[in-house]
Amino acid sequence: MLSAVGFILVIAMVALIIWGKVALPPILVILPTIAVIILGLMGYLVPPKAEVAAPMDLLMCLKTLQGYLSTGLNSTLNTAALFTFAVVFFNVLGDAGMFDFIVSKVMKYIGNNVSMILLMTCLLTAISHLDGSGATTWLITAPTMLPLFKKMRISPIILLTYVALVSGVENMLPWTSALARVSASTGVEAREIWTALLPTQVVGLVLLFASVFIVGPILKKRGCGMTDEEFAELKSGMLKLNDPVLKVSKGVLFFDMAFLVVLVVCLLMGWINTNVAFMIGLSIALIVNCKDAKEMTSQIKKHGSNALNMVMIIFSIGMLVGVMKDSGMMNAMTDTLMSLVPASMGTHLTFIIALLSVPLSMAVGSDTLYMVMAPIFGNMAIAYGGTMLAGAAACTVGACVAVNLCLVAPTPYLALGLCGVEMKDNLKYCFLPTWGLGIFLAIVGGFSGAFPF
């Protein structure tokens, strides 16, 4: 019965997420609450301070739910803190003009060359996506590069594909919403997932950056490009910096860049936990870039609202995680699925999941894959001698790069609108490159040990 209710719960959540008429927090809170009440009234749950399952009244069901919630929230606190402070940290650096400063310097060295325009697109995407926000990345990259693509007679599909894939691979950073969600649902620290996927991420970014020197000449042969006069006029307009929100000196900008590098190195070396790193990092960034307490408070209020929605989702995941684990539903569902998987395939389970994570994410949405299916796959991996980390990494590697192909998320439609591309063309031209990259990254992950072959 626990398994049956668990699968019904998952199916109901998937259906409501795909339907898109209900926000995530109500789905993640109300449905698990209903499941606990049903199982409690029927006598399939263990009451508080008892050792065996027994029928409970409604009040006792709610008390039991409270215990599950405490467990779940404890597992998500670090993730919520990480995401909150990281989002504000990167936005403060953005308001200080650090990212615009870097882009303007790089633009000086970009010539009238199709490959270099593609390279600039990759670089701008990598810089703008450091805060982990897909919407911010598209709002910065698409309006900046689309006029250049049009002048160069390069299809907007190419812009859409490169921005989606580079930002997708970069989504594996520990402070992004992708890792925040899968970390909250599996209980594996975001930094551990990132460390396991780091070779995959590095290879993916190198591949995408290197590919511009292959794709560029191909596009050139198809008639893409512009005259030197046209390019010079367009480039002069792009070199003009927007006035930053925070008025800081160049010395402060150089400090911000150096500080960011030091912070990333500390995370990479494991010298400090991610949530602590960004709590300290934000505090220093506010002191260095803001002139007084009023400006610091203004920055926190301005960008804290961007993190609030995700923090609510993370805490709501805590409800789901606590109910699924403490009620026994997770173990029951894992046992059921294991009975359906041939024993010979069990040791290869996480690699198979990684190979299929791109179409799986497209079908059910990254939210469902990260928050609902990842812990189930992780428990199955454990049962076959693997780890929860391997299950989490397998779900993450393809879902990250497929984010712009997801039919049930808002950001892809924002990207399509900014690039002037329809979803049918997005799926037609971007699916094979995206899944191809996903399969390649899964193979790299297998060799690097993120998840075994």
Bin the strand percentage.
under 5%
Helix content: over 70%
Structural class: mainly alpha
Terminus-to-terminus distance: 34 Å
Mean pLDDT: 87
Label the overall shape. Answer: globular
**Secondary-structure element order, N to C:** HHHHHHHHHHHHHHHHHHHH
Task: Count the E strands.
Answer: 0
**Main β-sheet, in a few words?**
none
Low-confidence stretches: none
Rg measurement, Å: 23 Å
Total helical elements: 20
Structural write-up:
There is one protein chain. This protein is mainly α and 453 residues long. Helices cover 79% and strands 0% of the residues. It contains 20 helices and no strands. It has helices spanning 2-19, 24-42, 58-95, 98-107, 114-128, 134-151, 156-170, 177-186, 190-221, 228-238, 250-269, 274-289, 293-326, 329-340, 343-346, 349-364, 366-383, 388-401, 410-419, 423-448. Helix 1 (2-19) packs antiparallel against helix 2 (24-42). The radius of gyration is 23 Å and the shape is globular. The two termini are 34 Å apart. The model has no long low-confidence stretch (mean pLDDT 87).
Features:
membrane
List the helices and strands and how they pair.
Blueprint: H1 2-19, H2 24-42, H3 58-95, H4 98-107, H5 114-128, H6 134-151, H7 156-170, H8 177-186, H9 190-221, H10 228-238, H11 250-269, H12 274-289, H13 293-326, H14 329-340, H15 343-346, H16 349-364, H17 366-383, H18 388-401, H19 410-419, H20 423-448
Helix pairs in contact: 1-2, 1-14, 1-17, 2-3, 2-13, 3-8, 3-12, 3-13, 4-5, 5-6, 5-7, 5-9, 6-7, 6-19, 7-9, 7-18, 7-20, 8-13, 8-17, 8-18, 9-18, 9-20, 11-12, 14-17, 16-17, 16-18, 16-20, 17-18, 18-20
